[in-house]
Amino acid sequence: MSFILFRITENIGLMRRLWTTFERILRCTPQAGRIFLAGSLICLGQTQSQGADTQVSSSWYKGVVHAHANWGVPQLPTTSPDVVVRWYREHNYNFVSVTDLNYYTPTEGLKALFDAPGRFLVLPGIEPSKDPIQPGNKIVDTIGIGIKGPVDFPTGDTVATVLDSEAKAIRRAGGLPIAAHPNLTYALTAADLIASDKTSEPRFFEVWNTEPGMNNLGGGGKPSTEQIWDEVLSAGRVMYAVAVDDSHHFYEFVSSRQTGSPLSNPGRAWIQVRARELSVPSLLEAMNRGDFYASTGVVLSSYAATPVAIRIGLSDESRDLGWSLPGANPQLYRTEFIGKGGDVLKRDDSLHPEYEFKGNELYVRARITNSDGQVAWTQPFFPK
Length: 384
Ligand SMILES: [Zn+2]
Hints:
The chain has helices spanning 2-28, 81-90, 108-114, 159-172, 190-195, 225-234, 280-288, and strands spanning 34-37, 40-43, 59-67, 95-98, 121-123, 125-126, 142-145, 176-179, 203-209, 239-244, 270-275, 292-295, 302-305, 309-313, 333-338, 344-348, 354-356, 365-370, 375-378. It folds into three domains: 2-30; 53-296, Alpha-Beta Barrel (TIM Barrel); 310-384. The relative contact order is 0.12. The termini are far apart. 22% of the residues lie in helices and 23% in strands. By secondary structure, the protein is an alpha+beta fold. The model is unreliable at 1-55 (pLDDT under 50). Bound molecules: zinc ion.
C-alpha cells in the first residue's frame, strides 16, 4: 500500500514537473527562442512589455558598467585601461566599461585587442563628476555607458542641477546615464532622482556599489539605496537598478593577511543583460526595456515577467569548495516580491518563485537572497 502510495505520489510529482516544463515552454514560445542547458529550460527573449523584440532569440550577457583605470586621480594607482579590460575578460565577463572621472577612454585600441564577437565587448564609458557640492560636500557622479565620445563637464551648483546636467550631457553624447553611488556622502535623495534626467525614460541608478564607503544599506536615519529606489518607483517614475564593482585596484587584492587601507577590487557585483546580441545598441536597448538584473552572486536560471505573473527559476547547485557530497549542501533562497512603498507582497522560498498579479499593483520587483547572503535584484515590472 505504501509502495502504491509512493508510486502515485511520485507520479503526481512527475506529472507536475512535466506540466511545469510544458507550461514554461508555452510561455517561451512563440515569442522567444529557447535552448536547453544542462537539462534545464531557460526561457530566452523579451517577455516584459516594454519595447519587446519578441521574434529574435536572446542570450544573457554578464558585465560591469563602472570600473576605473584611475586616469588623473593622484591618490589611486594609475592603471592602464588594458589591465582593467583584461581582468574582466579573463574572469568570464562578457562586457566592461572603463568609466574614469571626467575622462573619456578611447576604445578603438582596446576593442581591437579584446573584443571577440558574441563573447566579449568593450563598452565606451565615462563618469562625469563635479567638485563637492555645498552644503555637505556632496559627491554627485553619473556613469555614462555607450557614449560616442567625450561628455561635457557638468554644470550647476545644487545636487539636483548637477545630477541633471550629467545625465543630459551623457544622453547628448549618445550614452545611457546611471546615477552613481547614491549614498556616497548621502548625496542623492529620491526627490533628486525623480527630478533629474526627466526628458527620457527610464531612469537608471546603482542599487549596489561594492567600493568601500558607499553606504548601500543606509542607517542612522538615512535610507538604504533600495528604500530610495522604492520611493522613486512609488512616485510612478520608472527606474532600473545596476550593481557595480566601481573597481579601482587591479594590482593589489584583499587577502586574509592584509590589514591595510580599504581596496576596491573587481569581481563583486555586476549585471546580467538579456540581449539579442553582444553589441552596444543591443545592450542599451535591453537595459532600456528593463530586461536585465543586478547581482552580487545570485544567478537566475530563468526569468519571465508578463502582466499575468513574474516567474523565476533558481538552481540549488552547491557553492562550497567541494566539501560536501551531492545534495548535502544545496544553495537555498529567499525571494521577496516587493511593491509600492517597499512593501513585501509575497515571500517564496522555492526554486521557482513566482508572483501572480492581483490587479492593484503599481509595480512589483524581486529581491532574491541566497543562503550565502548574495543578492539579485530584478527590475520593477509595471503591469499596466
Ligand atoms: Zn567610480
